[in-house]
Amino acid sequence: MTNVLLKVEQLKKHFPKKKKGFSKTTDVVKAVDGVSFEVYEGETLGIVGESGCGKSTTGRMIMRLLEPTDGKIYFNGIELTSLSKSEMRKARRDLQMVFQDPYASLNPRHTVEQILEEPLIVHGIGNKSVRKEMVKEFLQIVGLNSYHAKRYPHQFSGGQRQRIGIARALMTNPKLIIADEPVSALDVSIQAQVLNLMKRLQEDLKLTYIFIAHDLGVVRHISDRVGVMYLGRLVELAECESLYEEPLHPYTKVLLSSVPIPDPTYQKEQILIQGDVAESLPKNGCLFQQRCPFATEACKTIVPELKEVKPGHSVACHLYDEPQQ
Amino acid sequence: MLLEVKGLETTFFTNDGKIPAVDHIDFKVYEGEILGIVGESGCGKSVTSLSIMGLVPNPPGKITSGEILLEGKDLTKLSEKEMRKIRGKDIAMIFQEPMTSLNPLYTIGNQLIEAIRIHNKWDKKKAANHAIEMMKLVGLRRAEELMKEYPHQLSGGMRQRVMIAMALACNPKLVIADEPTTALDVTIQAQIMKLMQDLNKKFNSAVLLITHDLGVVAEICERVIVMYSGQIVEEAPVMEIFKNPSHPYTRGLIQSVPDMREKKETLYSIPGAVPKPGSIKVGCRFAPRCEFARERCFNENPPIYDVSANHKARCFLLEKGEGTVYDKRAVES
């Protein structure tokens, strides 16, 4: 495989819970708890999971929009976690983000031109006339017109706004784009347009994506490799085909079988699980133990590590432990 | 037949003029069936459900023509007081946001008992017992304790179960579910859909399911109505619509969904964007985005054609003798 562009090691984010009364000990919510993965140059790594699994927190920590509690992030050989704020700002030239809500992520008082010019000004790219040309060029790249430059965000539809959000991320010619639920606020017909655009841009501009989403169909369509998160931990990481055809972790199996298939003739084996993510968390062992139909004694005490069980397919589950244990 | 909607038009009177959010739609709901209405944002699917419930915000909205017949009785002619007797008793509604549709200041028990006692002259004890029974039925464990809890103490899936329990508490003939699983995670969505299917069988209440998700439709609906820009563009049994989608919009919509079972290089996408309601006045609403559109489509509004016995679609391509053009091009694409 090609070069490792981004490497995340034991990334953690613990948010303090509100203190109760005068108690000194602060409880923490482990939003992300020891996540490690690598992203290769030119690929798309999909990260899926249900709400509260920590997928967005992970994305924001890589951008250092949130400070990690612990762990290291290496981007292109540089350790991002050790950079100062101003150094990090420079590094963000190669590291851009596309947000979920195209209504909230564009400044309503700026024209599209101002929005797209901003990253260029921040990074000191070009002079005024060069920047104006670049804005027009990038508008066309994302399928809008150069005359759109003078308009305000409210004059665009959701799909068009998301195109503007993508153009803004592309302005500084980044290497890695982190897209956090970029199509989940869009209608189905528009969603397909934006996904195709992102795929085309990846080929043309040699981009690397981290694609965070909850929609498993969308993730399969765009990703080369997929990581599944559950309650702050990565439970499975594999090549896209391998994960969807032969999921190993019981949670991944449940997740895949829950997705409604738009084909009434398709008979699927549905695995319904009891309970709900929000119910009380186990203190020790695997976090999925209470909902897992295969839970054993080991699951109650030992936290399963993410281990490679097949070439390119890692899973964090005791079912796939070496038989001697 | 349980419900018949005839020529319903719901208009919003705004500063930009009259906007027909629902533009002369006709459909029927039969007893005990699950009927899906699909469409993208702004197609009028939610306004349709609010019109049936008599909950269109007025002003700016108003039912400007048409009839909504529930077992022969026209709901549009009823007074607010009479309508209240029907809401919750004959027709119940489940909303998308279980977070906002429960009152945060009252306990779950309080809200369920209120809903039950509005339509039944029962004492509190009996109503409470019925509420607990309903909660158990929708798969809520610890029902007795939940009666004393507040909505914020429950997870999204549990709140939606409470909403379903409330909707079914008076044994309605029709349940309108407006995007009931959209705000939920997939594993919880699967649980709720299974529950709705089971309850539909058990109570024989008809369900009008409003959704944008074709996967959900394929999974639980028996018949489907596809709406686009305030109009019904296609209506068929679920098997039929996925096998033989006859309106280019339906076809495009089905092809745009990324199927989890296989990976395609590029997804089919419908060009352009969903038009603002009321922005297209002449011709077929879908014509500007349609790859099969001809001059006629821009000038005349197509009527509804019969494709087969239960299958109708609003497209000129279905006119006798012209269907061949469509079939040929469809095969090529």
From TrEMBL, chain A:
Keywords: ATP-binding, Nucleotide-binding, Transport. Residues 6-256 form the ABC transporter domain. The keyword Signal does not apply. GO terms for biological process: peptide transport; transmembrane transport. The keyword Amino-acid biosynthesis does not apply. PROSITE patterns: ABC_TRANSPORTER_1, ABC_TRANSPORTER_2. One of its GO terms (molecular function) is ATP binding. Gene3D superfamilies: P-loop containing nucleotide triphosphate hydrolases. InterPro entries: AAA+_ATPase, ABC_transp_ATP-bind, ABC_transporter-like_ATP-bd, ABC_transporter-like_CS, Oligopep_ABC_C, P-loop_NTPase. It comes from the Bacteria. PANTHER family: D,D-DIPEPTIDE TRANSPORT ATP-BINDING PROTEIN DDPF-RELATED, TRANSPORT ATP-BINDING PROTEIN. Belongs to the ABC transporter superfamily. This is Oligopeptide transport system ATP-binding protein.
